Structures are given as structure tokens and as C-alpha cells.
Amino acid sequence: MANAAPLAEWDLPEEFQTLRRLMEARMLKMGRREYVQVLRLLETFSMDDLHAAVKKALKLGAVGFDAVKHLVLCQVEKRPPRLDLDVYPYLPRANVETTRAASYMALMSEAAE
Q1: How far apart are CA 96 and CA 98, in angstroms?
Q2: What is the per-residue pLDDT across 19-46, written as a single tens digit (0 to 9) for each?
Q3: Model confidence over 58-74: pLDDT tens digits?
Q4: What are the counts of helices (DSSP H) followed by strands (DSSP E) for the chain?
Q5: What is the pTM of this model?
């Protein structure tokens, strides 16, 4: 799909490629279809609004067409998103701990060796 003729001349931001890879990795063939649906949002929304929605979806870990569409609508309507990730049980949950200075210092001391 990355080499598909209709997409060859598109100059899409890197976040779109990240979204495509994640969608394909998580949902295989359905992920490719959903990615095409995301691109079709450009028929209705500007690249700037869609790009902002894709970045927000990646940040939230809400990688799916429904989430991106919701976020782009919120972007255009200037309202906060209300994503309930329980609706997307196939999306993996990311648990990110707060970075501790001691962990960083341990990495720095290892790099110095």
C-alpha cells in the first residue's frame, strides 16, 4: 500500500506513515482499510485539521478511523474530544510511568562507561 500509485505523489506528514504502520500492525487488512478511510477524510477536511487529529490520535494511543474522525470533528468544531477507549477493546493500552531523575542518571552513568 505504501507504494500504491494513487499515493505515490502525496507528500504526507510523517505522522500519517506512523498511523498507517500502527493500524496495519494492529488490525492487518482491516487496518489498511481504516487508513484509507482516514485519508478519505481529506475529501471533507483540510490537511491541517486532519494532521492535527492524527497527531492527537497518536498521542492518545487511539489508533483507528473512528477516533481520528472524532478528533478531526472536534478540531473543526473547537470542542474537546470525548474518547472512551473502552469502545475500542482491540486497541492496546499504553501505561507510561513518570520519568524519574534517578533512572535518567543511571542511563547517563552507563553511557559514560
Answers
A1: 7
A2: 999 999 988 889 999 999 999 999 999 9
A3: 998 888 999 999 999 99
A4: 4, 0
A5: 0.66
